[in-house]
User: Which sequence fits this backbone?
């Protein structure tokens, strides 16, 4: 994937993530009288929204880092070993920072 295409995809992803994060950070459900079941449901919804916000924020950081790599001329190279990141991986995950092998090692460390 060439840098111009990558930048375009990453900038679109960033705009989409910013919109999603804005929605997820919106005002909580207006306070009103609830039954015990409603209160439990609201808590579950809040937990779910917080989890989605955490994921979206992490992905946003990855997109910003990928845009920095485009600027630096290192986009498409694994940040760990320096080998090329497979084209298919970049098409599926334009923000990918690692080749498949290094990403696997990274995930096993967690």
Assistant:
């Amino acid at each position: 994937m060439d840098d111009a295409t990558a930048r375009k995809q990453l900038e679109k992803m960033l705009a989409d993530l910013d919109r999603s994060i804005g929605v997820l950070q919106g005002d909580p459900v207006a306070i009103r009288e609830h039954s015990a079941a409603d209160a439990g449901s609201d808590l579950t919804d809040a937990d779910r929204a917080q989890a989605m916000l955490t994921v979206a924020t992490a992905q946003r950081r990855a997109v910003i880092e990928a845009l920095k790599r485009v600027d630096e001329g290192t986009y498409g190279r694994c940040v760990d070993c320096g080998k090329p990141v497979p084209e298919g991986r970049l098409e599926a995950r334009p923000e990918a920072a690692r080749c498949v092998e290094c990403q696997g090692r990274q995930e096993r460390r967690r």
